[in-house]
Write a structure and sequence with these properties.
Distance between the termini: 12 Å
Radius of gyration: 11 Å
CATH class: Mainly Beta
CATH architecture: Roll
Structural class: alpha+beta
Number of strands: 5
Strand content: 25-35%
CATH superfamily: Ferrous iron transport protein A (FeoA)
Order of helices and strands: EHEEEHE
Helix content: 10-25%
């Protein structure tokens, strides 16, 4: 679950338009090699985010055994 977005206003608007906002469930589908993009699912939407942008999204894992990054 997304707990906070620590990004500049332009990126915040873009992420919220894609459905990434506090309280929303997100699922990581794939991670690119090295510093490649992160493939996410938010509701019925799938998207790719640069790691530098994804790192600014604070999340809380629903599974206590997993650590989200």
């Amino acid at each position: 679950m997304v707990t906070a977005l620590t990004v500049e206003p332009g990126l915040r608007h873009r992420l919220e338009a894609l459905g990434i906002k506090p309280g929303q469930q997100v699922k990581v589908l794939r991670r690119g090699w090295w510093s490649g993009p992160i493939h996410l699912r938010v509701g019925m939407t799938e998207l790719m985010l640069r790691r530098i942008d994804a790192a600014r999204i604070e999340v809380h894992s629903a599974d206590p055994r997993r650590v989200s990054r």
